[in-house]
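sry for the spam today, last one i promise. struct tokens for design, 515 residues
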């Protein structure tokens, strides 16, 4: 099998990684909040009703902030329903997810969890059925330290100091016809601008996320005109524009946009995500140039994840005899694709400054309302990147092996991102092999680092790529350490695998060195 060669030079940089690239997302869907996170009757519930076993896994994940409360839920949510004495909170019908909402968990409970875990909160305002004034009042309740009625109400509800929430979303997926009070680009842009201006009069230091396209799929006809139109109206008033992308490798009838990719197309994932990011980056550059602006709006990839129905035909993939039967469990394949999405965002860290994996409970942490919880397969690539993806992303030149896809011709078998942490003097290579059959040798040519020592190689690889972790076997698919040689520079990447390789500089001479 032809090898892949990755050339890495210390001087060729993509950009600095923002800590907000490692965000996650919680939404009031099914049992994600009630029955998983909040469950007062559970043996492991704390005095506030939250499950300590789930909170421990959230802390272990390494996420830097959590986006809340939606998602589709937020476009019909009124934040005042979720504050004050719990026995007085109204029970309402959740139109987005067709279930009753008790409002036992709201802003105060969410922000306290974030404080407890030392994770930054992000709040999304309702720009569907909500008003600009309602959003400004929500900000006042959370951040104002004066003596207004809302500030006093927060104190009365148990939090004397402001929550100081710095990042706010201006609605959710307002371009999608599935959204409550869906709007045209012009309708949404005007409401977003007026809301942004009211909010910044209350707190000029906040950062705001504008709704961009919720998918690049062909049946979302407003993409990417939506992004240009809303940016032309709101560019001066926001710091980010959002992208949402759920990647599928088999048909999922419940999605709002029709993804037609199959398992044979997974090697196209890097280009799919890259094209999406670069298209929105081009819209940003266009509007910035048109306005002759010195301001740089960034991308918030504030929903992303891997979805599959687990209904793939066993006969079609004879090399994998086992398919995970738990439809709520992620597979080894999902973990690799999850890592691939992280790699794509790292390689665009010059413009993607914030991101939220969706949805952390379910997608990365599986919870049994009547039992325990465990780390999904996808938990591990996220934790790897959150832990080791600190510093500067370096540009790479990659040549070599390719795989034939179903619809997109030949695509590279291996995709990678390389991070240089100058403080630790470490180089970390994150790599995936998309080939479903073949192991691929990957040669790393690292230049201008001085003398290097390979200190770690760990990977996720499972012979049965459709196998996943379950309550019966929660550690079926986990990272394993691979034996290495000190001066090793060629690594065998198994088919469908997630790989993390670390090097440390022995000294810092500026001479050219290649291993």
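last one done:
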């Amino acid at each position: 099998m032809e090898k892949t060669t990755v050339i890495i030079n210390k001087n060729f940089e993509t950009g600095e990684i923002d800590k907000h690239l490692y965000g996650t997302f919680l939404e009031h869907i099914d049992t994600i909040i009630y029955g998983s996170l909040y469950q007062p009757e559970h043996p492991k519930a704390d005095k506030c009703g939250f499950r300590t076993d789930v909170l421990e896994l959230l802390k272990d994940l390494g996420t830097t902030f959590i986006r809340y409360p939606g998602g589709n839920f937020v476009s019909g949510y009124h934040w005042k329903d979720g504050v004050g004495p719990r026995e007085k909170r109204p029970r309402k019908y959740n139109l987005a997810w067709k279930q009753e909402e008790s409002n036992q968990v709201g802003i105060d409970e969410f922000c306290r969890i974030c404080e407890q875990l030392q994770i930054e909160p992000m709040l999304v305002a309702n720009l569907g059925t909500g008003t600009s004034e309602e959003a400004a009042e929500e900000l006042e309740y959370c951040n104002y330290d004066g003596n207004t009625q809302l500030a006093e109400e927060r104190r009365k509800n148990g939090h004397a100091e402001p929550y100081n929430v710095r990042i706010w979303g201006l609605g959710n997926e307002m371009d999608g016809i599935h959204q409550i009070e869906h709007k045209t680009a012009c309708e949404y842009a005007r409401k977003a601008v007026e809301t942004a201006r009211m909010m910044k009069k209350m707190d000029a230091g906040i950062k705001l996320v504008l709704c961009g396209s919720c998918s690049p799929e062909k049946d979302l006809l407003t993409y990417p005109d939506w992004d240009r139109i809303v940016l032309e109206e709101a560019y001066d008033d926001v710091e980010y524009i959002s992208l949402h992308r759920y990647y599928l490798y088999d048909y999922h009838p419940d999605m709002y946009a029709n993804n037609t990719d199959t398992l044979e197309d997974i090697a196209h994932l890097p280009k799919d995500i890259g094209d999406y990011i670069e298209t929105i980056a081009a819209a940003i550059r266009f509007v910035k140039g048109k306005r002759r602006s010195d301001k740089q709006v960034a991308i918030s990839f504030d929903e992303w994840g891997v979805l599959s129905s687990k209904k793939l035909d066993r006969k079609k993939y004879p090399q994998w005899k086992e398919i995970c039967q738990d439809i709520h469990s992620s597979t080894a394949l999902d973990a690799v694709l999850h890592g691939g999405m992280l790699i794509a965002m790292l390689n665009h860290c010059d413009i993607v400054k914030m991101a939220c994996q969706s949805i952390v409970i379910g997608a990365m942490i599986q919870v049994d309302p009547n039992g325990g919880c465990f780390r999904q397969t996808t938990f591990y690539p996220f934790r790897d990147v959150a832990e080791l993806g600190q510093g500067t992303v370096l540009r790479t030149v990659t040549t070599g092996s390719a795989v034939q896809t179903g619809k997109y011709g030949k695509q590279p078998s291996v995709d990678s991102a390389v991070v240089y942490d100058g403080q630790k003097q470490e180089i970390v290579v994150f790599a995936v092999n998309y080939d479903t059959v073949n192991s691929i040798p990957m040669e790393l040519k690292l230049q201008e680092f001085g003398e290097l020592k390979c200190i770690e190689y760990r990977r996720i690889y499972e012979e049965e790529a459709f196998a996943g972790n379950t309550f019966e076997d929660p550690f079926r698919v986990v990272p394993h350490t691979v034996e290495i040689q000190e001066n090793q520079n060629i690594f065998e990447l198994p088919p469908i695998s997630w790989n993390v390789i670390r090097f440390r500089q022995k000294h810092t001479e500026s001479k050219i060195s290649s291993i």
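Residues 232 and 291 are 8 Å apart (CA to CA). ok im logging off now
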